[in-house]
Structure formats: C-alpha cells, structure tokens
Amino acid sequence: MSKDIRELEPKAVWNKFADLNAVPRPSKKEERVIQFMLDFGASLQLETLKDEVGNVIIRKPATPGLENKKMVTLQSHLDMVHQKNNDTVFDFDTQGIQMYIDGDWVRAQGTTLGADNGMGVATIMALLESTDIPHPALEALFTIDEETGMTGAMGLKGGVLQGDILLNLDTEEDDEIDIGCAGGVDITARRIYELEPVQANFTGYKVTVKGLNGGHSGMDIHRGLGNANKIMNRLLYNISLHTDLAISEIDGGSLRNAIPRESNAIVAVKVTDEFLANFEKLVNTIKSELKVTEPNLIISLTEVALPENVMEKEAQQKMLRGIYTAHNGVYAMSASMADLVETSNNIARVIVKDGAIKIGCLTRSSVNSGKMDLANALKSAFELADFKVDFSGEYPGWNPNPDSAILKVLSAQYKTVFGTDAKVVACHAGLECGILGQNYPDMDMISFGPTIKGAHSPDERVSISSVQKFWKFTLEVLKNSPA
Asked: Ranges for the Peptidase M20 dimerisation domain (predicted)?
C-alpha cells in the first residue's frame, strides 16, 4: 500500500515518510536508520555529521534573500515505539511498516505506524531536499532513543548546534503550539521469591486481559483508559480473597511509555462453585466500570496444564498488595494551566517468572518536586512489600516561556493562515526540548506538529488533511522567521 501513500499530498512529505518507514528503527537499535539519514544528507551534498551518541545533524544554507534570518534548527527523533496486536505476525527488527489509507487517516496493519515522530522526520527531509521552498539557514537535528530514555538528547553536547531557534516537530494536535512539557523518571521494583510445588487438588488456569486501547502514557493518561496490569492485579487479589490461589507466572504490558493493553497470568486455583461465580461477577463489574472507555475489553479464564511450581504465599500476598497500593493514572492536575495533567504514573510492566518479580513504571510531572513526591510514594509502597526500588532515566521538564519570540511568530502566522488562534499549551509528554535546553539555554524553542491519534499503540494513525495543514504552516513559519 506504500504506492498509495506516495500519491498523497504533499507528496514530498509522504514519499519521505514511506522511505523512512521501510527502514526498521526500534529504540536502541537505530543503526540502520542512522546510516539511512547519513546517506540521505550525503546524497544532497549537504554538511552531514553524526555525534558520539548517534544523533545526526544536517545543515543547509539559506535560500537567496533570507540569509539575514536566524538559523533554524528543525528537530525530530528517529526511533519509534514498537507495539503490535497479539494476533499480528510482524518482526520490527527486519520488516518495514505496512501502511494503508482509511478515509482521512493513514494507519498500519496491526502495528504502530511510526508517525510519532516519523512525520516530523519526513517533513525535515522534504525541506532539506527541496529546491524551490524559501527558508532561512536550516540545521536538521535527528535524535535517537527518544522513546526509551531520551539518551540522544541527553548525549548531545553543548556547542554542536549552531541554530538560534529550535522547532521541535513532535506535537500531535495541529491546532496546538506547545511551549512546555513534563519531565519523567523510570521506577523499577524488583524482588525474588521462593518457589514451592503446587498442590495436587488445584487446577491450572490462564487468566487473560486484552482488547484494551492502550495509548501514550503521558498524552492519554487522563482519558480513564484501562491498565491491563492493574486489572490483572485486581482480579488475582480478589480471587485470593475467596479461594486458594497460587501464582505461577504473570506477563503484562510492554514499554514504559505505553499504557498496557494486555496481561496474561498462569495460576493454580482450588476450584469451587463460589470461585467461578465470584470471578464472573468481578469481570462483569470491571467491564461495566470501563464500558465507555474500553468497550472491547476481554477478560477470560481458560483451563491449562497445572504448573509445577508457584510463588510462595507470603511473597504473593505482598506483591498483590504492593501493586494494588501503587498509584496508576493522574496524580495531580496543574494549578497554573487549565486542564493540564501535572503529575502521573503508568504501571507499565509486570513480569513474574522463575522466582523473580520485576515491575516497571514511568512517573511524569511538569514540576520536578511533584515528580519525586510521587516517585517516593511508589518507592514506599513497593518497599513495604519487600521490593528493592531503583530510579533511573530521569529527565527534566521544559519550562514554558510565554514571551518567546518564535512563539509570537507562530501565533501570528497561524492566525494569518487559518483565521483563528492556535491553542498555546504545555503537554504531559516528554519532549526533548527540556533536555536540549540544558546545554542550549539561549535557544528559543517551540513544538508543533500534525494530528496523530493513538500514538504508542497499534491504533496509531495520522490525519492526511492535518499533514497538509502542518506542511503549509511550517512553510509560512520558515518564510517569516525572525531576522
């Protein structure tokens, strides 16, 4: 279907997006896409370099008549989130994304699309390749590993970039201009437990939670979506209240920045009529609670072979109570910006197997003290359940600058081109601007982009008409950028 994608307007952008999506580019495995970008810059005979962590920088001189304008750094990240539906057979390490058109949307066949942040990358590539678009001197910054640690932005040293203005093309609503974002910290809780043989009068079951929407653990955290790990824990906790339950394995969620859509557990249960009735009642209750936000939720109980070993009882009780206590979702709303989530947590990953438990969370906040307050609350909850807790991957937020010169340009151009005011916002996602600003404090930064829905999930899609709007807006911004 990539042929159909290449016929969409603006062709310059969609062709580059199709080229990019043919290159496997998982986070932390960006070698191929880095070389792809280096080859692209070299093919245009533009100044092209790679820094010591793998970020790619390409520079293009100003078009005649715009040499007096400030150099603009256009920035997007090369990696993409890898998520697929359970029944989709796909190898992200070797295959290119399979795209198709669905009305005004471009989607992928059962996987994430990579529009986050591939549309930004493709737009920059189209500008670098253009021969008839007026623009100031351009500096393209393609960062790596944004989705699983922002190590590209963190590793970019001061003095490498030459631009005065940074346009980050990673916002996902085309009527928004972003001037701030949340910082984050990864929380990992681990503990070991003793294995014990299962009792002979028990029955083996597989408990499955699936069909959830998933989504971006920052941008979608306020939507009341189901978290497969919390739902699974609720099921197992309540089963344990009414009958003998022994947990053998749990495998729930995937990436820290994706709201978990699926969880599977292998358990042993002393079956009674009361157990089956209580389980069915609880399933109906959960489905009723989530019927608006998660209409496709499936919770099933399937008899399987009895596992040989299970988790010892005390560790099981502490784990279930620890996860139950750990906060998931919105923790605090911003007092300074209306409708902005200030602090949140995503219980993203739960793995129980072979005597070891690992729980992974991503805590976000636009206020550093609020981020650490929630992080310490989670740490305390898990430590009370005898877990060892580590913090890692911390990155700062991006403090809004309402007096930004480039903000004034974007706001004015949006009003001129579209006849209405853009929404000036901060977001509850982790943009790289806050990190880049540490080494480039004088760089004027802003973020905008086309409308993308369902990012970090197989429902990811990008609006075709919005890409047209975004392209038109970007060209006007560059033409009218500050001298």
From this structure: 208-292
pLDDT tens per residue, range 150-173? 999 999 999 999 999 999 999 999
Three-state SS at 139? strand
* Digit-coded pLDDT (tens) for 254-286: 889 999 999 999 999 998 888 999 999 999 999
Whether 280 is a known active-site residue: answer no
Contact 221, 231 (CB under 8 A): no
Give the CATH number of the domain where residue 447 resides. 3.40.630.10
d(CA 68, CA 405): 16
- Of 116, 146, 176, 459, the active-site residue reads 146
Q: What is the CATH number of the domain that holds 192?
A: 3.30.70.360
The end-to-end CA distance of the chain, in Å, is: 43
Question: Closest by alpha carbon to 10, among 119, 141, 84?
Answer: 119
Domain shared by 264 and 408, yes or no: no
208 and 190 housed in the same domain: yes
Q: Look-up: residue for tokens 């280096």?
A: 38
DSSP-derived letter for residue 330 is E
Beta-strand runs (E) in 54-144:
56-60, 72-77, 99-102, 105-108, 138-143
pLDDT tens readout for residues 342-361: 999 999 999 999 999 999 99
State how many domains the chain has: 2
Contact of 248 with 310, CB cutoff 8 Å? yes
pTM: 0.80
Residues 233 and 283 in one domain: yes
Half-sphere exposure of 27 (CA within 13 A, CB side): 20
Hey, is 4 helix, strand or coil?
Answer: helix
Is 339 a residue of the active site?
no
The whole domain housing 357 covers 185-395
